[in-house]
Structure prediction request, 356 residues.
Amino acid sequence: MRLALLSLLKQKPLETITIAELCREATINRGTFYLHYKEVHEVFKEYLEVIVEDLKQSYEEPYYKTNYHIQNLEADMIKIFHHVKEYKDFYQIIFDERIPMMYYYLLFDTIRSFMKESIEGHFELDQSIQLDYLISYQTNAILGILIEWHRHGYATSIQELNQHLITILSINSPFEKY
Amino acid sequence: MRLALLSLLKQKPLETITIAELCREATINRGTFYLHYKEVHEVFKEYLEVIVEDLKQSYEEPYYKTNYHIQNLEADMIKIFHHVKEYKDFYQIIFDERIPMMYYYLLFDTIRSFMKESIEGHFELDQSIQLDYLISYQTNAILGILIEWHRHGYATSIQELNQHLITILSINSPFEKY
DNA sequence: ATTTTTATTGTACACGTGTTCAATATATAT
DNA sequence: ATATATATTGAACACGTGTACAATAAAAAT
Prediction:
């Protein structure tokens, strides 16, 4: 099933792949599909789990390397842009205009939970609601860079992006305060 | 047409409204629909233009009030959260998991163009590509607050949100540098 | 008023959707 | 090996999609 989807994704965008088509490709009965999934997106979501797993590792790497002192971040510690470039084909799908928000939220929640851990574990929290907003602010800001990268057709080099992120974070760090 | 859509939106979510249904509601032929639109989203998008227009005014208000010196921002100058709450029903649709990214990007681009104007017009730019990333970072950060608000069911008060935004921006201002 | 242009309608078609149900196949247990 | 449970299949159904085309209606031009 997942193999059939990958095969079709090489030919046409996700949003144009129908359930009937997918079943023909996988030579299974359409009724059988409905016993396992409700829509094509659920198959894609399964595949995405692998990628999100890799994202987690890429994202937390600088936290390990700086021992959760993100102020000491160096450009070559950032691995998240490597990760996105490696799975570029998938991020192109996720950031596509026609694709439902669910995938974006999947990314958001993944990065957000890291952000939360790294802040809550190493800084004392004053008001937790306020923190929720701060974390979402910071999380989505990072995703803003990915959106911009996407719009530049992933042409900007990873080194440059790392440098931008460092610059932005240094101008603009909520961590100093805590 | 737009009226028919609004009427149906009171009964069921946007993603479940079919073209056939919309045409029945508006008592026009389905073929006629295809002469003007390609999908239900295009009708909704038309309606959104009104809201985006209001968003623009809400967003730029603090810039006028502080005469583009955003450092002097005061809580009661922020009107964007008033705006979102006023059109809460629509933002609930836009931030829905099943809805395509296109609406999110519409918001993103609207806010982004303001961010760009306000920065480019009042600060000297060094590298324009770097600036692109900074602007998208900042823009999406704001949208991160709206996502968080959405997830709290728009329960957080506007006053509190204004205060959060000020706090975040004061910790975290890219404008000081310029 | 009558022609010309443009918009809308009804009908049809091949395909997809989501569901149901009996029939068949496959796996698991005894 | 045989019975029992579980999975898959094929066929059918009412509905939606996108497209095509001739027929009719409405608007604009002469």
User: Anything to note?
Assistant: The first helix of chain A runs from residue 2 to 9.
